[in-house]
Amino acid sequence: MSEENKRIEDLSGEVYTIQDAVRDGKFMDLDEVLSPDGKRLAPPFFGYVSMGVMEAGMFEEDGETVNMSNFLDLMWHCAKLVRKLSHGFEDAVESSYMGEVEFPDGIMRVVDMEMYEDDNFTLMFPHERL
């Protein structure tokens, strides 16, 4: 077996998934944030959010409790951005959207919304892509 084929074979079984990133503490599963009791009202548009985004104003002073007002406002702005970029959802759904949204501190930041293996969008900063 050539050295190149061996390297490809070594990598083939080691795909880093969104679940791996949640387990490693890089991303947060929104089911745990939005429905901690396990009761889900509807399928989420966003399934995961990066800790980088969460640390940009989504936590209360204690650094652990989610500030739901800030968080839901950010989700609304991100969904609005996807609606704009997809021309009112008339275009086919893309697996990636990127644009600027306003964060709770009033600063416009570029966010990346990627669809990974579970068909839900993951909200992150561009440098946090898997």
Architecture overview:
This protein is an alpha+beta fold and 130 residues long. 33% of the residues lie in helices and 21% in strands. The protein has five helices and five strands. It has helices at residues 3-12, 18-23, 30-34, 51-54, 68-85; strands at residues 27-29, 46-50, 96-102, 108-115, 121-124. The protein has a five-stranded mixed sheet. Strand 4 and strand 5 (121-124) form a beta hairpin. It is globular and about 40 Å long.
List keywords for this structure.
five-stranded mixed β-sheet; 5 helices; globular; single chain; 130 residues; alpha+beta
> How is the largest sheet built, in terms of strand order?
1-2-5-4-3
What number is the mean pLDDT?
A: 83
How far apart the termini lie comes to 30 Å
Structural class: alpha+beta
- Oligomerization state: single chain
Q: Which outline best applies?
A: globular
Task: Return residue spans where pLDDT drops below 50 for at least 5 consecutive residues.
Answer: none
- The count of β-strands is 5
Approximate helicity band? 25-40%
Largest sheet: 5 strands, mixed
Question: How many helical stretches?
Answer: 5
Topology order in helix (H) and strand (E) letters: HHEHEHHEEE
Strand content: 15-25%
| Gyration radius from CA atoms, angstroms | 17 Å
Describe this structure in a few short sentences:
It is built from five helices and five strands.
Topology record:
Elements: H1 3-12, H2 18-23, E1 27-29, H3 30-34, E2 46-50, H4 51-54, H5 68-85, E3 96-102, E4 108-115, E5 121-124
Parallel strand pairs: 2-5
Antiparallel strand pairs: 1-2, 3-4, 4-5
